[in-house]
Amino acid sequence: MEKRCRLGVALLSLLVTACGSTANCQANTDAAAPAVRESGIVYGKGGDFELRLDLARPAAGGPFPAVVFVFGGGFTSGSRTEWFTEINRAAQRGYVGVAVDYRLTGLRDESGRPKYPFPAQVHDVKCAVRWLRANASKYSIDADRIGVVGYSAGGTLSLLLALTEPNDGLEGPCGDPSVSSRVQAAVSLAGSPDFVLRHKISSYDVELLLGGSPEQVPDRYRVASPLTYVGGHDAPVLTVTGSFDPRLPQQRLLDDGMRAAGSDHTLIIVQGAGHSMYGLVNFDEDNPVWSFLDEELKTTR
Fold first, then answer.
1. Of 177, 256, 264, 281, which is most buried with the most CB atoms under 10 A?
2. For the chain, how big is the Rg over CA atoms in Å?
3. Which H or E run contains 205?
4. What is the torsion angle, in degrees rounded to the nearest 10, for the CA atoms of residue 273, residue 278, residue 280 and residue 282?
5. Cα torsion at 101, 103, 109, 114 (round to 10°)?
6. Bond from prior residue into 218 cis (ω within 30 degrees of 0)
7. Distance between CA atoms of 46 and 262, rounded to whole angstroms?
8. Which H/E stretch holds residue 57?
9. Integer CA distances (angstroms), 301 to 61, 145, 264, 297, in order
10. How far is CA 233 from the centre of its chain?
């Protein structure tokens, strides 16, 4: 096993709750550490939709690496407020924790069609990263160390942040285009690397997002799928998934593709778990997600 906190493809009976049982890494945890919290900060506009974020950071010191948390909900529903506890935990561990909005397909226009289809969602999370980097000094952020953690639909967006580059055409108009939307590490909790396979699990939300079936709009499925962008310059990615989650075959394809490209990918399969995030990771404890983020965002290279 490598010295770094990497498990390769692992089949686990339970998600490991102590890094010490998988690798020699030290968690940066201080439950008593004071944190400064700010809520509802406007970071941009997506069309006529005001985009906001919640932020928690250590009260003193810095600059600190930042971790962006992206909620799930099939792109139709969900809220940044679901990450209330996790961004506080991040601040206690020496990060600036950030929970972000993105536009949902549950919002409809006058004709009843989704008001914000893809790629609005990836435009928004890229805008959030640019905003954090542009405002790094104000919020004690190390602009060179920004990671992302997403669950389900948020995990898919995390993968797109990690794998896409400006010439892929997904940057969007929000924020300062001269500021990079690149992340240095990404965690996908039960995300979907391939939208054609995702459509087979649940077609309704995918067709809302992409405007039709794979047969009707194949190019949109290709553009939206993180697998499309796997290459040699990807940010390190950790995928955590349940052995009973039907998304697992997609995540194995991602693992195979990133390894073949020479990219850094770790796949953890939690035995007996399904699609629930809380069956995959407990952010209140030491776990492989914190270990991965510590290794990628806090280690001097």
1. 281
2. 18
3. helix 203-210
4. -140
5. -140
6. no
7. 35
8. strand 49-58
9. 21, 12, 15, 10
10. 17
Amino acid 17: pLDDT = 32
Instruction: From the options 3.30.70.270, 2.30.30.30, 3.65.10.10, 3.40.50.1820, give the CATH code of 32-235.
Output: 3.40.50.1820
In angstroms, the CA 246 to CA 275 distance is 8
Q: Which of 70, 267, 235, 268 is nearest to 150 (CA)?
A: 70
- Rounded-to-integer distance, Cα 104 and Cα 92, Å: 30
pTM beyond 0.70, yes or no: yes
CB atoms within 10 A of CB 58: 21
Query: How many of the other CB atoms lie within 10 Å of CB of 276?
Result: 13
Q: Give CA 274 to chain center in angstroms.
A: 19
Question: Residues 16, 292: contact at Cβ < 8 Å?
Answer: no
Calpha distance 42→181 (Å, rounded)? 17
Please name the helix (run of DSSP H) or strand (run of DSSP E) that holds residue 123, with its range, or none.
Answer: helix 120-134
Between CA 79 and CA 72 the distance in angstroms is 8
Mean pLDDT estimate for the chain: 90
Both tokens assigned to 293: 């983020």
Closest by CA position to 47, among listed 100, 113, 110, 123: 123
Pair of tokens at residue 229: 């962008």
Rounded Cα gap, residues 137 and 123, in angstroms: 23
pLDDT digits (tens, 9 = 90+) for 113-144: 999 999 999 999 999 999 999 999 999 999 99
User: Over the stretch 176-192, which tens digit does the pLDDT of each residue have?
Assistant: 999 999 999 999 999 99
Q: Cα–Cα distance between 197 and 98 in angstroms, integer?
A: 30
Q: Which residue is it, tokens 């892929």?
A: 168
d(Cα 243, Cα 149) in Å, to the nearest integer? Answer: 20
Amino acid at 258: M
Residue type, 285: E
